[in-house]
Write a structure and sequence with these properties.
Blueprint: E1 2-10, H1 19-22, E2 29-36, E3 39-46, E4 49-54, E5 57-60, H2 65-70, H3 79-93, E6 101-113, E7 131-135, E8 138-142, E9 146-152, H4 153-159, E10 172-180, H5 184-188, H6 201-216, H7 234-249, H8 251-263, H9 269-289, H10 293-306
């Protein structure tokens, strides 16, 4: 389930006295060579991996380990594949990359869906501690440490003019990624996070479990067609109509409108809080009272994917 990983192998983990003179010769291509405020550096490529060598250490960043090892980033790396990929880098660069610090982890899985990917986005609502942002080809949940991303993988491959594996050709493929971008040791409650921990069974199991649990923390919104219920109460009818409007326009748009009112001082902070709580309570009730076949499908497939590790 691994995709992108960032590594930093510091000088104190390496036996070579001069990394600048020894490591560049192991690269497939040198892309730049210069001097910064930190000293001499060399940038280059090891296959598809972007490598930076300096007097302080060796960094691999903004690259797909999956593409490097498996040939494309449509697939994802298993625990065993990850170990072999790290060993391959170590052999190629003659460096102990199993001891490298990990500063970014992307884990992902492809979910084959019955319908096109963007059909599902409106029913994935707000998530606590994340900001929801819907884009043309994807749905993003951002905070200052992590990112959850849903997007069409086949669509992305077509845009990049990359080949589509036969297994996924002519199919709807929703990619769900969880990206740990900052303060990884704090997020995983460890003193140090090294490459060899990536293929430790216990660590990997917890990571996959986290990938699944973050998905289930996203509020799920029911189908609009199932929301209206017969009622003799004018008050309840008002709630049903309010809910239908929220689902029609999108929960996130309504919440942003409330935020805008608050920023313009048209309503107080307390009133904005009450509005947001009311909106979330209405859509939360839908999740438990009704049925949404699209969300049921996603839930089942996320659970199935989390069992394959």
């Amino acid at each position: 389930m691994y995709d992108n990983l960032d590594f930093i192998l510091s000088k104190d983990k390496v036996l070579q006295a001069d990394l600048i003179s020894s490591v560049p010769a192991c690269l497939d291509k040198i892309t730049s060579d210069g001097v910064s405020e930190y000293g001499h550096y060399v940038n280059g490529l090891l296959g598809s991996l972007k490598v930076k060598i300096s007097e302080r250490g060796v960094t691999i960043k903004d690259s797909s380990l999956c593409k490097y090892y498996l040939g494309d980033n449509f697939k994802t790396l298993s625990r065993g594949d990850t170990k072999k990929a790290v060993e391959l880098i170590s052999d190629k660069l003659h460096l102990p990359f199993s001891e490298a610090k990990i500063t970014r982890i992307d884990i992902a899985q492809n979910i084959v869906t019955q319908y096109p990917e963007n059909v599902y986005y409106p029913y994935l609502g707000e998530a606590q501690y994340y900001n929801r942002l819907e884009q043309n080809n994807g749905l993003y949940y951002n905070n200052n440490k992590r990112q959850l991303v849903f997007y069409g993988k086949v669509h992305e491959q077509k845009l990049k003019k990359q080949p589509i594996p036969d297994l996924y050709n002519m199919r709807n493929v929703l990619r769900y990624e969880m990206r740990f971008r900052k303060r990884l040791t704090q997020q995983f409650n460890v003193a140090e996070l090294t490459a060899e921990m990536l293929y430790d069974e216990t660590f990997y199991y917890k990571l996959v479990k986290r990938w699944k649990s973050e998905y289930f923390k996203i509020q799920k919104i029911n189908s609009k067609l199932n929301t209206m219920k017969p009622t003799g109460s004018t008050k309840d009818l008002g709630k049903e109509l309010a809910l239908l409007t929220i689902l029609e326009l999108g929960q996130s748009k309504i919440l942003k409108l409330v935020d805008e009112w608050q920023l313009k001082n048209e309503i107080t902070k307390k009133q904005a809080y009450d509005h947001r709580r009311y909106i979330k309570a209405l859509t939360s009730k839908v999740s438990t009272d009704g049925k949404n076949d699209l969300i049921d499908e996603l839930n089942k497939k996320i659970i199935e994917a989390s069992r394959i590790f």
